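> Could you send the LuxR C-terminal-related transcriptional regulator prediction when you get a chance?

Sure thing. Input:
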Amino acid sequence: MTRQRIGRPVRVSSFVGRRQETAEVKRLVAAHRLVSLTGTGGVGKTRLVLHAVPRLARAFADGVHIVQLAGVRDASLVPLALIEALNIRDVSGRSPVRVLIDQLQDRESLLVLDNGEHLADACSRLVETLLAETDRVRVLATSRHPLDVTAQHVLEVQPLATPTPGEPLPPKPALEYPALALFADRAAAVLPGFSLTADNQDAVAALCRRLDGLPLAIELAAVRMRALGVQQLLERLDRRHRLLADSADSASGDVLPRHRTLRAAVDWSHDLCTPEEQTVWARASVFAGSFDLGAAEEVCAGPGLDPDEMVDAVAGLVDKSLLVRDGDAVHARYRMLESIRQYGLDRLREDGGRAEAVARRRVRDWCLDFVEECERRWFGPDQPELVRRLHAESDLIRSAFEFCLNTPGELRAGLKLAGHLWFFWFATGALVEGRYWLERLLAAAPEPTVARARALWGLALMLLSQGNALRAAPLVEEARELALRLGDEVEAAHTYFGRGGALLISGDYTRARAVYEEALSRPPRAGESMSLVGFKYVELAHVLAIQGEFDRAMALCEEFRQVCLTYGEQWIHSYLLRILAFAEWAKGDQTSARVHARECLRLKRSVGDVFGTGMTLELLAAVHARDGEGRPAAVLLGAAKRIWQDAHVALDRTPSHGPVRTEAEEGARALLGGGFKSAYQEGLDLTSDHAVAYALGERESAARPVLDSPLTRRETEVAELLAEGLTNQQIADRLVVALRTAEGHVERILSKLGFTSRSQVAVWTEGRRAIRP
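Output:
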């Protein structure tokens, strides 16, 4: 099956021109394993890549993955950014670079590294390693300068073509000069009905020449058409440009003309902003990646800006194309283009860096409050939404960690932040990232604090999930001793899960049972995590089932299931259902085991628990095999194997796992004979989501899951037009419908597919075309 993915896509407006460049990008990527798109800031490198990606997707069986690096400040985070974009959930404990190499070794993928000039050395080292260690991976990078890697092919992205001064314009200048077409398109967005005419085209041509054909500068100028005419725009911009050029020449004389052009356009946009908008622009420049309005209110409000003024200021920046609105109709997010963000940082640093330090500390405070709130709400009905939000804020949280590690006096706050994220890293399988931050912060902050105790047992949980009981056991004991020494009984109670887990993984069932029996003999403390209380039930039931005490194991599961149902909790509930299904299967109650295993899968899908999904797929395979259903058993075994391969998990680490898998495979082979191999391969080709859908009976055949579509015929038609790069207005014109009708179709498509950007729809559409019979 084709696995079309796109990492952290961004919403873009309509694409104008660049037909030849798009074709050249496609040709170069087909011919070279490393292609670098270079060019000055504002020339449109990212826009060109996002336009080319859907047209490249069909050539890569394992997907195109976009890695947005603009928000990554620490060079050591580059491998982690790729791991997240590739949706890798690896529990082997290897280095991030080794994880990437092993994951990509047999994959045919295109990695798009966008905006990596500030991480040039790290990107160059990683790309060189990946290309040397893999055979079918290709890389497309955007940067102001080429990577320092041999055998790369560099394509310098040039500004959009403009007419030569004094040259007569052709009858339809927009067709021959993309700069003019771009200005007309963006001007029409703010001044409906605007078009190039004999009266204005000479002025537009002169304006685009003055802006050196730089797309970002043209877009910033076009926004001013709401208040000014073209000639007025040209006169004011010309005056601004001369002042900046005189200043640069007198200062150094070595500023490139295009840099001065962009600076003039951005300077002018800044001057036309209200004081409130200027304040938000400067303070929001510390955000890594995208942010929502709540974060903006916490970080940007203060002297010179009341929280009540924030919405108008943000809206004003969006109207002026200084903020880009991302997200969907429900969840609005904002981001800055890198050139705009850097300008804001320069303004913020005008007082010697004091304002920047304040803003970054506010980001830290916001992240800590946000994560603590997520942890408080985790044991409840909002888990899928919390996972979505935590993923969305990952760049911001990483920037807070970097601030804490690099700023004197902030280590304790960083340790506290990491300690409160244990549930997210644990539940979603982001163990590589969890270990990365916890290990760095624990090494940097050895002082005996409650935050350290929590971080110690949090790291132990990451290690236990990776099967490393040898290292986890002393960490969790250290956490318990420290918590008791500090008089914090809640943190001491939190260590029971890890203490018992280390014994369980080591096969010491008797001592593990004693730890969990002791834990459950005491009522939960006020403030104790209900998720960790639930895990005490899960693991005691697990040990009891292994030891053959099925009825007591099932009773424990049912007892805490009622708590989960009362709170609307899904993550712990899914583990209880799996242990319940295992005990029922072991007792021979196939019907109940099938029902509970499927119910477990539904919950695990909602919170993205990949590893729990793999274990449950194999349990369900064993149920099918006992019921004489060989083909679904083999398909599910293959699907689980794919999860284990991607995660590099040794399956014998889970005590209840080996016998289940062995019986399922032996039964399926006996039922299918020579047909086992093809059914098993069918499962190997499934993504985790498609495997769950198959297990739940939502797809009849695992061989054609990607061809099924939730879209109506009209929505499919609109998706095809999105893949062509059409705007909503152009879609409305093509289909002869109202603009609002076209917008409604686009919003429903994004919602049905679970996407947040038009570029994702384009990649999805191209992927379907590539495998359509």
